[in-house]
Amino acid sequence: MPNKVRADGGRELDRFRGVEHPADTPNGAEAWVGSLTRANGATPENPNLGYAEVILPDGTRDFLVNVVKRAPETILGKAHMEKYGTSLGMLIKMLDAKAPFLLQCHPTRENARKYWNSRFGKEECWYVLGTRKDVPEPPYILLGFKEDITREKFEAAYRKGDAALLESFCHKIPVQPGESYMIPGGVPHALGAGCFVAEIQEPSDLTAVPFPQEYLLAYRRKANPFGIFEPEDEQLYESRMLNSFHYEGLPLDKLLDRLKSKEAVLRQEPGGREIEIFGDRDTSYFSCTMVTVSGAMARKNTGDVQRSL
Question: Is the pTM of this model over 0.90?
Fold first, then answer.
């Protein structure tokens, strides 16, 4: 079942899925695919926000998280259960940015434990599936700090509420379909208008956004009218936000060498080929490959829950 969670968009998602009349909707920009992860804003009255819904063989509908809980070892496997329990250990999203997303970063596992009491951080990667043509400028991403950025400069811009200045601290990178970018915990990033990406990530919804809490709450309430968002202690909000960013600047060429996929060929066969988008050298938490099939190829089983594009 489609699982669109929040923010204005979704037309390119509809096109990707072959919907007859693709259209943007107020909460259509994010689709959480096969999600066992609860989204920010879930409440006792709406506890399943973010969870994927499935149609069972008898035609009834249920949330995938409930299906897994009923038969976890059958669905996930014993080895996976021993490592992650009933969590998938990853989350897949499809993001269709009709408008620019907010500048943000996500915590490392260490900071997620320290500031959010969470087992998982939110390291992630983007694979660019497509771009929109009807946007004010060519689609781009913001990724990583420039060389001369310090925590002091960043915090001063945050306290001034200068969004344009904060964004100017980051590299602005035009993107094309087929490109892939790694986004480690602590690295600032944002999708520009017109980007349609697959996002593979750790299974959490933890985000540090360098804007005043009242602004972020208003943004989230508009982007996700089904969620409930309450203010938290202001000192905690600022502390974990400012401490989640890694203030390491790099020149653009070094940033791209570190974070843009080199697309190593894993196997080439008469029936197709498999390319590594990101693997063990890039992150310890997930991997992503691209399989292009022109005939017949055997599926390579690693023994883990896998994601291939």
Answer: yes
